[in-house]
Design brief:
InterPro entries: DAGAT. It is an enzyme of class 2 (transferase). Keywords: Acyltransferase, Endoplasmic reticulum, Glycerol metabolism, Glycoprotein, Lipid biosynthesis, Lipid metabolism, Membrane, Transferase, Transmembrane, Transmembrane helix. This is Acyltransferase. It catalyses: a 1-acylglycerol + an acyl-CoA = a 1,3-diacylglycerol + CoA; a 1-acylglycerol + an acyl-CoA = a 1,2-diacylglycerol + CoA; a 2-acylglycerol + an acyl-CoA = a 2,3-diacyl-sn-glycerol + CoA; a 2-acylglycerol + an acyl-CoA = a 1,2-diacylglycerol + CoA. With about 325 residues, the chain is α/β, with parallel strands linked by helices. The chain has one domain. The protein has 13 helices and eleven strands. The strands form three sheets. It has a seven-stranded mixed β-sheet with strand order 1-10-7-2-5-3-4, sandwiched between helices. α1 packs across α5. It is globular and about 55 Å long. The mean pLDDT is about 95.
Length: about 325
Amino acid sequence: MKVEFAPINIPLKRRIQTVAVLQWIFSFLLLAEFCCGFFVILILGNFWFLAVLYLLWLYLDWETPCAGGRRSQWVRGWTVWKYFREYFPIHLIKTSELNPNHNYLLGFHPHGVLVAGAFGNFCTDPPFKNLFPGLTPYLHIMPIWFGCPFFREYIMSAGMVSASKESVSHVLSNKGGGHASVIVIGGAEESLNAHPGSLTLNILKRKGFIKMALKHGAHLVPVFSFGENELFKQVANPKGSWLRNVQEKLQKIMGFALPLFHARGVFQYSFGLIPYRQPIHTVVGSPIPVKQNLNPTTEEIDELHALYLQKLKKLFEEHKSNYGIPAHKSLIFE
């Protein structure tokens, strides 16, 4: 394989952007393991009492990820996130007003490999708060991450909360509105489809978010992130292949998927784990009004689910030509 090296005279700003993304990759892939390892070292070392104190704190604070988390405007406003967003760059596109007197459930599509668009738009300031003043976004992620010592504090500071039913219910129960639950509908399973050009969404059997919206009267908002699947290449894993079978079995056991992805490096463009510089345009659609129904029937859930799919497809079709999607390509629902 011929290695393509980066030019020496690259502007300093672009170097800083690359470092910012490298930091984000480390946070996603290795920081949780590093924090767990550090915690074990504390237990086995001379500072075991610090580990005991933290365990006490963990016990007392265990429900916080399901009760709105503990965000830090300071962390969300770090300068490093500005360079992170500029690297791709990441853009948030507003198509309709969202009245802050309501609560909303935003369905984010597609998952991609590492959900860069969701993080950049909903976990860093100021993109979302500038476009939708009065609304506070909460990005729901797998509960397993909130069991990692120290790491849980970091991700909560960015505005991430658990994806459990209790957590979503807490966010959407805010009296007076002003809350926006952001759920990556396809989940970890969809990351296995995150190949460049892929438009396949795992959504046909995912109706839990519809039921939550009905129970709380939260307006549904489809969100499509153009470019999300273009950031990485993935080892070929068609359905039925031995690799895909192994990945799906591991996902069922561990709760999260393991896509074998690659892209570029720091000083060369041929291999590595840093995403490609591909623009991400996250388009926030118009809200679907939802009337509260504490005990929705299966038929009512199916009806609203079908309407959501219709609005999501319409959002994609209306904007795909702006972001390089050929006219003959459409979303595939699985």
